[in-house]
Amino acid sequence: MTAPIHISAEDLEEVVHLVRRQYGYDFGDYARASLQRRVIRCMQKAGCLTAYELKYQLTNDDRFFAWFIESLTVNVTEMFRDPAFYKELRNTVLPKLASYPILKIWHAGCSTGEEVFSMAILLHEAGLLNRARLYATDLNPANLERARQGIVPLQNMKEYTSNYIQSGGTNDFSSYYTARYENAIIHKEYRKNIVFATHNLATDQVFNEFQLVCCRNVLIYFNRELQNRVMTLFSNSLAPLGYLALGMKESLLFSEARDQFDVVSPAVRIYRSKL
Predict the structure, then answer these.
(1) In the listed set 38, 72, 106, which residue is the last one of a domain according to the structure?
(2) Which of 17, 45, 170, 238 has a 20 to 30 A CA-CA distance from 256?
(3) Do 58 and 176 lie in a common domain?
(4) Same domain for 214 and 128?
(5) What pTM does this model have?
(6) Are residues 67 and 95 in the same domain?
(7) In whole angstroms, how large is the CA radius of gyration of the chain?
(8) Which residues touch 210 (CB under 8 Å, ≥6 apart)?
(9) Residue 3, pLDDT score
(10) Where is the CheR-type methyltransferase domain positioned along the sequence (predicted)?
């Protein structure tokens, strides 16, 4: 029987250092237990039995590194995920944002685009999409390329339709996409105002001012220091009285930035900047 693959804490730190030094990706402040599990999963997929083999591949094969980053980054997402959150956006947040002549929204850690597509549909139904600019960023270039094409697995659309209806949607959800083989393609008219770009929350800076920042189910993979850095980044990226949306398992309660926000909806983790 093959021994289970393991990577020691020391070897994991060497991998983190190698990736930072050679490729500029900084995983130094990612939660170690989660990062270790994901690195081991990558080693299993790649057939790397030891940390030495992994480091050798990362050092000598750029294509392997691209695959490693794609496999390492968490890509758990869905359209209208947590319908109660989207219902709150629909009923409470978007009516407040409707007064802006141009509405700028940042989806940080957008993965393959399902959540930003959901936002575009909400904005369309609220009559706001034509004056909205959505910025969708992610660490993983492969995620962004898939998102640019508007590709969503067709097998998921039944679940996404249910999410949409629970969020308060009343249109025919199938009118928002075209089925093509095993994929659904989100219509271009709902993607035309989305800008996709690479952005690393661990190292990159403020790049615009937004009325709404959505970063859902990303902070749970960061340690406390990086969480505080990212929350400061979001606070500095928000327009006065701008909104911040986090994931259902995330909170500002223990954040150094908590005093900069009022709670709009504690149940679905929506906050508003005091400044």
Answers:
(1) 72
(2) 17
(3) no
(4) yes
(5) 0.85
(6) no
(7) 20
(8) 104, 105, 106, 135, 237, 238, 239, 242
(9) 62
(10) 1-274
The confidence score (pLDDT) of residue 1 equals: 43
Residue 4 within any structural domain of the chain? no
- Using CA atoms, how far apart are residues 12 and 64, in angstroms rounded to an integer? 17
Q: How many helices (H) and strands (E) does the chain have?
A: 10, 10
**Packing angle of the helix pair 32-46, 62-72 (nearest 10 deg):** 130
What are the φ/ψ torsions at residue 206 (nearest 5 degrees)? -60, 135
Distances (CA, A) of 89 to 17, 44, 120, 204: 40, 40, 12, 27
Distances from the Cα of 48 to the Cα of 40, 53, 100, 263, 266, angstroms? 9, 6, 52, 46, 44
Q: Are residues 55 and 146 in the same domain?
A: no
Q: Are 11 and 51 in contact (CB under 8 A)?
A: yes
Tokens of 250: 């995330």
Domain ranges, residue 47: 9-72
Q: Write out the two tokens for 98.
A: 């409707």
Q: What is the pLDDT of residue 66?
A: 85
CB burial of residue 202 (10 Å; 0-12, 13-18, 19+)? middle
Cα separation values, 47 from 5, 38, 40, 57, 222, Å: 10, 14, 10, 11, 27
* 133: three-class secondary structure by DSSP: strand
